[in-house]
Please model this.
Amino acid sequence: MDLFGFRIGVDRSWFLILFLVIFLLSGEFRQALHSSDAVAYLTTVVTVLVLFGSLIVHELGHALVARREGITVRRIDLFLFGGLTEMSRDAATPAEDFKIAAAGPLATFGFVLLCLAVDLAIVGPHRLVHAAELDNTVQITPVLLSLSWLLFWNILLLFFNLVPAFPLDGGRMTRAVIWRVTGQKERGTRTAAKLGQGFSLVLAGIGVFVTLDYRNLSGLWLIGIAFLMYQSAKAALVQTAISARIEGVRVADIMDRQPVAIPSRTAVTQALDEFFLRYGWSWFPVIDDDYRFLGIARQERLAAAQDRGEDWLTVDAVLEPEQDGGWRVNEDRPITEVISSENLGRLGALMAVDGDGVLRGVVTVEQVRRALQAAFGSPGRLA
Model:
């Protein structure tokens, strides 16, 4: 699904939590509504789906501001523990970092105001509180129950996200503030990540207490969130350590400055003979007449065109076009940006371009590995 130009997807783990929440909540809704099982179940399903919709609203806040700041947003995914916005690069300035991080909570706050306005317009504050508490001693309609429950949980999510602990939005805003004051992004990340590890341990402790004392499955949920937060904060600390060792190293410092590229007007047969057969590689970058990077030519696609008797086609007709800037990186960017790129692992290399999109070089996994080994002294110290 596409929304505002962003691809929205769901991880398989999302279906697990969807059915689990519906199962746990339907009983409480049935008691609060004093209605048939069908009405209670339908209300539960709609409410849970809207809750996940509010998570998409939250992620859209991040995505829209990131796009405004010039960052390509590849996709938004819902998974077991919430939502994730996949961006082509990290923030380049403290202001950019703060704006992107704050956009999510602001979007959630807007959703809270919308629910509150509709609730108050329907019943007023008194019955709103009863509905949010799932009080079955008063008459509650399905619409009121759904909106009140969504209001309560979005307020909870809002305050949770504002906790100054990485990787929560509050932690990212904390990083941006420290980065702005000290001028050191690594110091901001390190502080926010340590706060994140501390908060995750507290959260895990609460989860254990709830599980053992109240026999409540929500305790296991808290433990799962705490584990994910701790691992993310730990990864941020590792990334910070790497960044400190390779500070100042840019893509241009390690890239191959004489990349082999296929001109877009080359015939398919000629490309197969003069490039793929000669070099034995499975793909090549494709450039136009001005040497601007256009996409990737894969051997199987060219061979398929030849087998169909379409060897008269030129490479630009059968190339795999670049999507969302995923195969390129600016030659002036730090190599930490390359390390965090998923496409480096998938393709094995990234195209280094200048500000006009002209292909200036190719940076490979092996070149990045050698740069890291040089920074840390030996391969064994990278573990």
Observations:
- The longest strand covers residues 73-79.
- Residues 37-68 form the longest helix (32 residues).
- Residues 43 and 142 are 6 Å apart (CA to CA).
